[in-house]
Design brief:
Layout: H1 2-20, H2 25-49, H3 52-74, H4 79-86, H5 92-104, H6 107-152
Helix pairs in contact: 1-2, 2-3, 2-4, 3-4, 3-6, 5-6
């Protein structure tokens, strides 16, 4: 039951953020589905396989790939699906802990939390980078295949 509540909360948080940034209405539901899919990958990897860094990497990779598919399906820019779907993966709690630790003078804990935030941000950036790299490889492969077919005729 707890997993179902988390899924609903992730979906609603994504829809709410999409409404805040004036996402087109026809992109809200798909953006929520992309977000839930990325969060489920994050949750599974973080819980059963590895830690939060690889979980963020693969969760963001999933968001990136599904955003590409969603953008082709809806004929809209990829960023419309990327940004709201990223909301559940952003390390807001750790960033808050960094600021809280700095304010209370606990610099060792602040440094530890800051390192976590930097690694998570790097994993998020890498996940998007890998998904876009895979997309570009696919596009080049499709263009080369079309060129070979046209040159054979």
């Amino acid at each position: 039951m707890g997993l179902f509540i988390n899924i609903v909360c992730v979906y609603l948080a994504t829809i709410g953020f999409g409404l805040l940034v004036n996402l087109p209405k026809r992109a809200l539901n798909v953006s929520g589905i992309v977000s839930v899919s990325g969060w489920l990958v994050y949750f599974y990897i973080n819980t059963y396989i590895s830690g939060y860094i690889f979980a963020n990497l693969f969760g963001t990779f999933t968001v990136g790939i599904l955003s590409i598919f969603a953008s082709r399906y809806k004929k809209m820019p990829v960023i419309i699906f990327n940004i709201p779907a990223l909301v559940p993966l952003v390390p807001g709690g750790q960033a808050y802990q960094v600021m809280k630790s700095l304010a209370t003078g606990n610099f060792i804990l602040a440094k530890s939390n800051l390192i976590q935030v930097v690694f998570i941000a790097g994993a998020i950036a890498s996940g998007f980078l890998f998904s876009e790299f895979l997309n570009q490889l696919y596009i080049r492969w499709r263009v080369n295949l079309a060129n070979k077919k046209s040159s054979e005729k």
